[in-house]
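Translate sequence into C-alpha cells.
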Amino acid sequence: MKNLKNWLLLMLFSLVSTVAFSQTKITGTITDGELKGSLPGASVIVKGTNEGTTTDFDGKFTLTTNAKSGELIISFIGYASKTVTFKGESGKTVNIGSVELQSDSNTLEDIVVVGKGVIDLAKDRRTPIAVSTIKASEIQAKVGSADITQTLVNTPSVYVAGQAGGFGDSRVNVRGFAQDNTAFLLNGQPINGMEDGKIYWSNWSGMSDIANGIQIQRGLGSSKLAISSVGGTVNFITKATDKRQGGFASFGLANNDYFKSTIGYNTGMNAKGWGMSVMFTHWQGDGYNYGTKGEGQSYFISVGYQPNSKHNFNFLLTGAPQEHDQNFTKTIKTYLDKGRRFNDNWGTLNGKYLSERTNFYHKPVANFNWDYTISDKTQLSSVLYASWGRGGGTGNYGKSSAKLRTPDGQIDFDGIYAFNQTAPNGDGNPNNNYLIRSSMNNHSWYGLVSNLKTELTKNLNLNFGLDLRTYNGTHYRQVSNFLGLNSWTESRSLRDNTHQTVTPPVFNTVTDQMGTNPWTSMFNTTPENQRIDYDYSETISYGGLFGQLEYSDEKVSAFFQGAVSNQSHKREDRYDYLPQFKDSEKVNNWGYNVKGGGSYNITENNSFYVNAGYYSRQPYHDNVYLNFTNAVNPLSSNEKILGLEAGYSFKSKFLSANLNAYRTSWKDRVTTTSSTTTADGVIGTTPVAAGSLIYKTNQGVEQIHNGLELDVIAKPFSQLEIKGFASVGNWKYKGEVVTTQRDESLNTLDEKREDVDGGKVGDAAQTTFGAGFKYEIVERLSFDADWRNYSKLYANVGAVKDNLELPSYNLVDAGVSYKMLVGKDKKNSVQFRLNVNNLFNEIYLTELTSNIKTTANINNANPAQGTYQSTGRVYKGIADGNQGYFGFGRTWNVTLRYNF
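Result follows.
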C-alpha cells in the first residue's frame, strides 16, 4: 500500500510538472503602423482557444498558453486585424517583437514616415494632453468634395463652418478660438500666416489626397515649437515616399456639376534605397450657391533616399493652384427676397458669365527632411522648408453708384461697360467709374525646424532644437478687369516720417490688366507703377529655441517643456509715403512659453492626466503697426495665455473613452486698429477739423474659456463600430474693453471703457453633441452615418455685454463603402464610396441693432432688419445694408478608386 501511495504521488507530481513546463509564455508590443504610437487595449488571442489578453498603456502584452505553437489574432478598434504565428520551447519565453496594425484602409501600407522628431506626434495618453487622431482611411472616405476641414467635424470642441460660400472657404474653431489662435502644422512645420495668423483652406485643396493622418491636440498640446496654440494644434501628416510599388486612379462626381480625377503612382524603393511617389489631381464645379464656380489642380512629388540604416532623406513638393468664385457680403434680407442659394456677386458680360468676387492662389510648398540615427540613444531630425504664395481676391473698386444691377439683382456688367466707354479717352477714375480689382497677397517663406532627441536613462528623454523662419510679404491692388476702360487714374497724398500727409495730390495712371489664372499669377508680377490703392511689403523674421524633458515608466509619464523666441517686424510702404520715408521702424518682440504635465496609469485600463502652461505670445504683424501704416502701435504688447487641463481615459478590448476638462485665460488682446476720416466736430474734448484721420483701437479684453469634452469609441462586435462625442463650453468675456481714439500724430483724443463682463464669445457653437456608427454589412461592404447637434452659438460681433444667440441646429452625414478585390492574386482593388452631407454656413454678423440682440425680441424683428425663416427655424440678421450671409445645403458625392 505504501509503495502504491508513493507511486501515485510521483505520477501526480510528474503530471503537474509536465503541464507547467509545456506552457508557452509569449510577449510582444503592438503599435500603430501609420503614426508609430503604442496601441493600449489591443486584443491578443490564441486562435482556436479562449486564451487571450490585452496590451498595457505602452502597447506591451504577456500571454501564457498551453499551446506549443499556433497563431495569435491581434485586433484593435479601427484597425485591420493581423495574424502572427508563434512556436514555443519548453521553459523559454517567445518574443514576437513589435507588431504594427494598419488602419482599416490598406492603401497606405509601408509609408516611409520622415521627420519623426519634427512632426511631433503625441502618443495617445502617454502624452498628457487632449488629443484625437484621424486616420487616412477616414479622410479618404468622408472628405468627398468638401474641404479637408470636414474630416474634423466629429472631434470634441472643434467647430467647422463656411465663410464665403465657395470652394475652400471653410474655417475651423477649436475650443472657441478662431484659426489665428489655433496652430496648424504641415509635417510639423507651421503654416499659419505670419502676418495675421490666418489660414485659407482654398490654398490646401490637395491636402485630402496626400494626408496620411491628422492629429488634433486641443489646448496646450505637446508641440515643442513656440507657436500660437491658444485653442490647440492641428498637425497634417502627409504621405512621403511609398515603399510599395503601385498606384491608384480615382474619379469623383458630386452635386452641381462637380468632377474630380486623381492619379498617383509609387515606384517603390529600389535596391539602392531610392524611391518616388507622384500624384496629380484636377477638379471643377459650379458650387452649391449660384455664382460660386471653381476649378483647380493639386500635385504631389516625393523622392526618398535611404542609403543606410542611419540616414533617411525625403524631398517633398506639393501645391494646389485654384480659383473659385465667392458668395460675399449680403444682407439676410437678400435671402428673404431671392432664396438661400442666391448670390449677387456675379452677372454676364456680352453673354458670358463673370464674377466680381474670385479668389485665386497658388502656394507651392517644398520641404527636405533628414532623419539621422546618431546612435541607439540619440536621433536628429530636421526639415528645411519653403513656400511661395502668389494670388489674391477680386472685388469692386471705384464709385459705388456706378455699379449697376439688373432687375433680378445681378450685376449689370453690360451696363457698366457701356457707361465706362463714355469716359474721356477711356480713362476712368474712382469718382466716376467702376472696375474689378484684385487685392494681391504674395509671399516668400523659408524656414528650418530641427530636433535632437537623446535617451539620458531608460526612462528619461531629452529633446531640444530650434525653429527659424523668415517671411517677406507684398500687398497691392491691380486692375483685374477694366470693364470697357482703357486706363485708370487715381490720386493720393504722401506721408512723411510723422505719418501725416504732407504733399499735394500725386496722380497715378495704370494701363495693365491682370487676370485671375493662378498658374499665370505664379510667374507674372505686376510692375510697381501699375499698382493701385496701396502697395507695401513687410519682412518678418523669427527665431526660437525649444526643449523638453520627458520621463516615462510603466505607471507614470511626465514632461516639462520650454521655448523662447524673438520676432522682428519691418514695413516698407511704397504707395503712401515719400520715398525717403517708405521704411518703417524695426520692431522686435520676445516671447516664451512653459508647460508641463503628467499622467498616471491607475490600472491597465484606467489613467488620468493633468497639465498646465503659460504663453507670452508676441502680437501679430498687423497689430504692431497702426491701421496698415508705418506708425508703430504704442499699445501693442504680448498677449498672455494661461491654460489648465485634466483628463481621464479608459481603454479596453471593446470600449475606449476620454474625458477632458479645461480652462483657458487669454489676456491683453489688442485688435487691429481701424481709421476714419471725420467731419468737423469734437472727439473727447479736442476739436477736430473736417478730413482729419482718426485711429481707433480696442484693447484690454480678456476671454475665459471653460469646458468639458467626451469622446467614446465602442466595438460591441467585429462588424459594428460606434462613436460619440460631446463638448460643453462656457466661453465669456471678462472685465471691460478700452476704446482709444488718436489723431495722425498718435495723440490720444478720447478713451472709453465699456463693461463686457459675462458677454458670450461668438463665432462657434459652445455646446456640441454627436454620434455615429459604421456597420460592415458583409465583408468589404459597410454603411456609416454621423449626427451632430450644435447649440449656444452666438453672433460674431466681438466683445459685447449682450450677444445674440442663434437657434440650435442638427446635421446628418451618411455614406456607403464597398471594396472589391480584383486581379489574379487579388492584390488590386476597386473602391466605391457614396457620401451625403448636410452643410451649414451660419449667419455672419458684423453689427447688431438694438432691438434684435436677444431671442426675446425675435418676433419683433422685421424683414428690413434681416429676419429669415426656414424649415421652422427663425434666424435674426442685421440691418439692411450691413454685411452678413446665411446658408443651409445638402450635398452628395460619389468616388470610384482603383488601387493597383
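Note: DSSP finds eight helices and 52 strands in the chain.
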